């Protein structure tokens, strides 16, 4: 599975491409803090919805584009890795944010 570092992600965000982030943490955690920028489209689909997908559950994935790279994140990257694998099986173009939101916040603090 492809991964992207927080520094590489910042480069994409500051570049000309719109970045699509899928945050798989619980809704409360997402509301507290998530990746924000004018070039970022961030969506929250909790991991439990992705783990429990069946073929008839298109609604949970209806917001996800099949024609764009989706950066998947969670707190540290473990749940995101599992969700990204599920989505890759369903032919989504997924990349894992290495270290998750924790690494992202550490990167921002260092800047």
Explained architecture:
The protein has about 110 residues and is of the alpha/beta class. The protein is built from 6 helices and 5 strands, in the order E-H-E-H-E-H-H-E-H-E-H. The protein has helices at about 5-15, 25-30, 45-50, 60, 80-90, 100-110, and strands at about 5, 20-25, 40-45, 70-75, 95. It has a 5-stranded parallel beta sheet with strand order 1-5-4-2-3. The chain is globular and about 40 Å long.
Please tag this protein with its features:
single chain; 111 residues; alpha/beta; five-stranded parallel sheet
Order of helices and strands: EHEHEHHEHEH
Tell me the strand percentage band. 15-25%
Radius of gyration: 13 Å
Supply the helix-strand structural class.
alpha/beta
| Average pLDDT taken over every residue | 89
- The dominant shape is globular
Query: What is the straight-line distance between the termini?
Result: 27 Å
In the sheet with the most strands, the strands line up as 1-5-4-2-3
Largest sheet: 5 strands, parallel
Q: Work out the helicity level.
A: 40-55%
Give a quick summary of the entry:
With 111 residues, the protein is α/β, with parallel strands linked by helices. 42% of the residues lie in helices and 20% in strands.
What topology emerges from the helices and strands here?
Blueprint: E1 3-4, H1 6-14, E2 19-23, H2 27-32, E3 40-44, H3 47-51, H4 58-61, E4 69-73, H5 78-89, E5 93-97, H6 100-110
Parallel strand pairs: 1-5, 2-3, 2-4, 4-5
């Amino acid at each position: 599975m492809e991964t992207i570092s927080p520094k590489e992600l910042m480069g994409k965000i500051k570049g000309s491409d719109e970045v699509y982030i899928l945050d798989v943490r619980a809704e409360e955690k997402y509301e507290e803090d998530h990746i924000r920028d004018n070039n970022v489209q961030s969506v929250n689909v909790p991991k439990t919805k992705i783990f429990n997908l069946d073929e008839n559950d298109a609604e949970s994935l209806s917001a996800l584009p099949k024609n764009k790279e989706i950066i998947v994140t969670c707190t540290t990257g473990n749940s995101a890795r599992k969700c990204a694998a599920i989505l890759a099986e369903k032919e989504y173009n997924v990349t894992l944010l290495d270290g998750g939101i924790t690494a992202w916040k550490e990167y921002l603090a260092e800047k």
